[in-house]
Amino acid sequence: MEVRVVNVRKEFERFPALHDVSLDIKSGELIALLGPSGSGKTTLLRLIAGLERPTKGAIFFGEEDASQKSIQERNVGFVFQHYALFRHMTVADNIGFGLKVRHGAARPRAQEIRRRALELLDLVQLSGLEKRYPAQLSGGQRQRVALARAMAIEPKVLLLDEPFGALDAQVRRELRRWLREIHDRTGHTTVFVTHDQEEALELADRVVVMSQGRIEQVGTADDIYDTPNSPFVYSFIGESSSLPVKVENGEVWIADRPIGLQAPHAPSGEAVLYFRPHDVDLLDGCSGCIAGTVAASRRVAGTRRVELEIGGERQRVEIELPVDHPAAQKSRVAFRPRRWKLFPVA
Amino acid sequence: MADPEIKSYEPHHESRSAAVTESRPVRVTLTTVTLVFLGIFLLLPLIIVFKEAFAKGVGAYFQSLGDADTRSAIRLTLLVAAISVPLNLVFGLSAAWAIAKFEFKGKAFLTTLIDLPFSVSPVISGLVYVLLFGAQGLLGEWLKAHGIQILFAVPGIVLATVFVTFPFVARELIPLMQEQGNGDEEAALSLGASGWQAFWHVTLPNVKWGLLYGVLLCNARAMGEFGAVSVVSGHIRGLTNTMPLHVEILYNEYNAVGAFAVASLLAGLALVTLVLKTLLEMRYGAEIAATRGH
């Protein structure tokens, strides 16, 4: 099921949580809503589910306007952050709940409900646990039961709110791979919310980066990482360093020195230079480069991270060196970013 | 599930916890003072109630309970409880549901209002009904013209009892429901359940032990209420006397055995309530711990 969010605005007691957000989700796609807390990602997910109503705008499921439909009518599978399993019901009863509450002819017979529950339990690799209660399961197992329960109603869209947020790192990685497999097998259109960029970039077909109630960028993991379209995305995704610079006649300057970067299309004036700390060329001499005094040097896993003070104003910037690189021993290091981007100062 | 390893962390029973620093005499004194207080103010009166009730033998005890007025008082008390407890069950449940699950204007005011019967003297509560429904009261004329008797009759007693026992169920459920939040209900709705189905299959089972506990307390108070009921009842023997009122009348007539026999029933009710409450707390405590054990 294709989902379109069209110019949606959401206010909570006059406080805007989403400003004019539009998003097209293709059928069968796995989408991540990524952003810091307060960016509106969970609000967007709840709006798609029908747990909230938009203040303005509309949400379409296929050609149908779903925004005025209740959550029951929308037929979405929602997996809650803390699973929200019914603690007084067994695992099998939890999974069968959505079928049990149907009315009339739509409601399968008890035996059929049970068969479906066991089938789904098998899909989430928890066969044999149908008689357990939620309190008797581990976090990862509860998460799987919650997913099986959401899939039992054959939803048009699967929505997951921080699906791995409450789990430890090991289980997270495992479940991530497993969710991808399930998605590929069942083909549900799936949207999940996360604040973990690694999770979003690894798992999703496309990532929606959000900040302060707006969508900053939508794209594949490569798009988002290699061509961030805003200072926010550049600094939020992956490691980044930034320096205040000046653009004059298509050339980038720091204080009174050109640093050897050509920006023929950038407007002249103040700007901020962004680059990845590991994506730099180290230089010996300095004619057209960024040079700085080593202020601090730390060993981080396979690399050495060096903090440099640049120019008279002692701007601090971080770069990464190979562990055995001779520059790490020196007190002055010169470099030039290999890939970089300029954002004019507003 | 209990982790077997936890056992090894249990402190040895022989050694005192390091947190207790008081010397032995101080500890003994404090414990004694507490026990003496409990004995004098709680245990002794209870013993006396039963001792006085059986002062003239088991025969006299049952004879006084068999008295027509006494039996009528017992029936009336049961009737009043049977009406007011379900009313407050429904009210308490809906108020707790509204306060814990929804945001609306005047919520803080409603929460305060629910506590009103706790903070107002029961006599005042009764008096309010007299001012409202009495012969000189606000609605007195109208009620008289339509032949409706509220004061000095069962409706008045029920009204006063409902007012006084108002907060028990709601007070018990509000914090419980607030802590549980809306997640389970939202999950039920997203799975296609109607609001009623979500309430019946999810909300109610989640609070059942707390609800039972509230009802138990509500019932104990409904049967034992004296002040408010005393003002509105009119003390008509055999008609509008509840058990607590009847105890007073019998006692004032120097019928000690009769008074204490009825009192022993009320005390018995209190004991049963306490035992049930303790059992529930054991059960309900484990369940709360389980819901928190993520």
Question: Can you describe this structure in just a few lines?
Answer:
Chain A is of the alpha+beta class and 346 residues long.
Mean pLDDT of chain A: 90
Helices and strands of chain A, in N-to-C order?
EEEHEEHEHHHEHEHEEHHEEEEEEEEEE
Number of helices of chain B: 13
Which CATH architecture of the largest domain in chain A would you pick? Answer: 3-Layer(aba) Sandwich
* Mean pLDDT across all amino acids of chain B: 86
Run of helices and strands of chain B: HHHHHHHHHHHHH
How many angstroms does the end-to-end distance of chain B come to?
11 Å
Shape of chain B: globular
Low-pLDDT runs of 5+ residues of chain A are none
Oligomeric grouping of the chains: heterodimer
Question: SS-based structural class of chain A?
Answer: alpha+beta
Question: What characterizes the major β-sheet of chain A?
Answer: 6 strands, mixed
Proportion of residues in helical segments of chain B? over 70%
CATH topology of chain B: MetI-like fold
Protein name (chain B): Sulfate transport system permease protein CysW
Main location (chain B): membrane
Subcellular location (chain B): Cell inner membrane
Keywords (chain B): Cell inner membrane, Cell membrane, Membrane, Sulfate transport, Transmembrane, Transmembrane helix, Transport
